[in-house]
């Protein structure tokens, strides 16, 4: 364990990885989204993308676990169960691509997805229609494929939101349950593929500390009357993370 911790602390670029996870926690704390969009593009400059995905998921599980009990009561569990099932079918394909495709190509793809999501959110685009079973299955499969490939499990759900006239509480609960289920499945799939190694687990434990501290700080700083300001800051930080993560600047 001490040797592994020493190895982790000697990781090149670790200070930037820590800063990325700290900023991800802060932004998620006061804006409610954006942690993966900030962390993945930055961390992928210093760590192999499969390791980044494992760290992101293991770190996120700590906070997701605290949100699930309440979300269980508010969510449309039948709908989310159907979407999760579709996501689970596509998830292994995404994990296979993550471990086989060229890393530079994957970083370009991550940057493209993050930038596209940011532009859509800034423009206020959301799908607000009613999704039928086929639409729900498509959204779930797309989220599972993208999550397995990049760790970005949220963008598809953020944009399609499974809305159709549901209350804000139900939509939020649906999102929490879906992401929790997908994160657990992603950890299992990555473990089966041999990506969850002891050094990566230790790295996740190290990064949990700044993430939880800044997440708590961000929640404490949140003021409803300043929501637009917080979102503007979140958009700016995500944009900087996406730009810094472009392989163009290596």
Automatic annotation (TrEMBL):
<dbReference type="InterPro" id="IPR002781">
    <property type="entry name" value="TM_pro_TauE-like"/>
</dbReference>
<dbReference type="Pfam" id="PF01925">
    <property type="entry name" value="TauE"/>
</dbReference>
<feature type="transmembrane region" description="Helical">
    <location>
        <begin position="229"/>
        <end position="249"/>
    </location>
</feature>
<feature type="transmembrane region" description="Helical">
    <location>
        <begin position="14"/>
        <end position="40"/>
    </location>
</feature>
<feature type="transmembrane region" description="Helical">
    <location>
        <begin position="198"/>
        <end position="217"/>
    </location>
</feature>
<keyword id="KW-1133">Transmembrane helix</keyword>
<keyword id="KW-0813">Transport</keyword>
<feature type="transmembrane region" description="Helical">
    <location>
        <begin position="78"/>
        <end position="98"/>
    </location>
</feature>
<dbReference type="InterPro" id="IPR052017">
    <property type="entry name" value="TSUP"/>
</dbReference>
<keyword id="KW-0472">Membrane</keyword>
<protein>
    <recommendedName>
        <fullName>Probable membrane transporter protein</fullName>
    </recommendedName>
</protein>
<dbReference type="GO" id="GO:0005886">
    <property type="term" value="C:plasma membrane"/>
</dbReference>
<comment type="similarity">
    <text>Belongs to the 4-toluene sulfonate uptake permease (TSUP) (TC 2.A.102) family.</text>
</comment>
<keyword id="KW-0812">Transmembrane</keyword>
<feature type="transmembrane region" description="Helical">
    <location>
        <begin position="52"/>
        <end position="72"/>
    </location>
</feature>
<feature type="transmembrane region" description="Helical">
    <location>
        <begin position="175"/>
        <end position="192"/>
    </location>
</feature>
<feature type="transmembrane region" description="Helical">
    <location>
        <begin position="105"/>
        <end position="127"/>
    </location>
</feature>
<feature type="transmembrane region" description="Helical">
    <location>
        <begin position="139"/>
        <end position="163"/>
    </location>
</feature>
<keyword id="KW-1003">Cell membrane</keyword>
């Amino acid at each position: 364990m001490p040797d592994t911790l020493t190895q982790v602390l000697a990781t090149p670029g670790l200070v930037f990885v820590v800063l990325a996870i700290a900023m991800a926690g802060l932004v998620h704390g006061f804006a409610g989204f954006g942690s993966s969009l900030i962390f993945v593009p930055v961390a992928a400059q210093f760590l192999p993308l499969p390791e980044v995905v494992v760290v992101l998921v293991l770190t996120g599980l700590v906070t997701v676990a605290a949100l699930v009990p309440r979300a269980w009561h508010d969510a449309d569990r039948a709908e989310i169960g159907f979407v999760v099932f579709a996501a689970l079918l596509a998830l292994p394909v995404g994990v296979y691509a993550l471990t086989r495709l060229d890393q530079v190509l994957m970083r370009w793809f991550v940057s493209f997805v993050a930038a596209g999501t940011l532009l859509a959110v800034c423009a206020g685009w959301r799908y607000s229609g009613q999704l039928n079973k086929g639409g729900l299955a498509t959204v779930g499969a797309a989220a599972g494929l993208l999550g397995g490939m990049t760790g970005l499990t949220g963008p598809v759900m953020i944009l399609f939101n499974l809305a159709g006239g549901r209350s804000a509480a139900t939509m939020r609960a649906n999102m929490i349950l879906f992401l929790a289920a997908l994160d657990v499945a992603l950890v299992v799939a990555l473990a089966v593929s041999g990506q969850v190694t002891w050094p990566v687990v230790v790295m996740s434990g190290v990064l949990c500390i700044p993430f939880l501290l800044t997440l708590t700080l961000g929640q404490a700083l949140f003021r409803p009357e300043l929501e637009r300001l917080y979102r503007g800051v979140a958009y700016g930080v995500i944009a900087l993370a996406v730009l810094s993560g472009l392989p163009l600047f290596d």
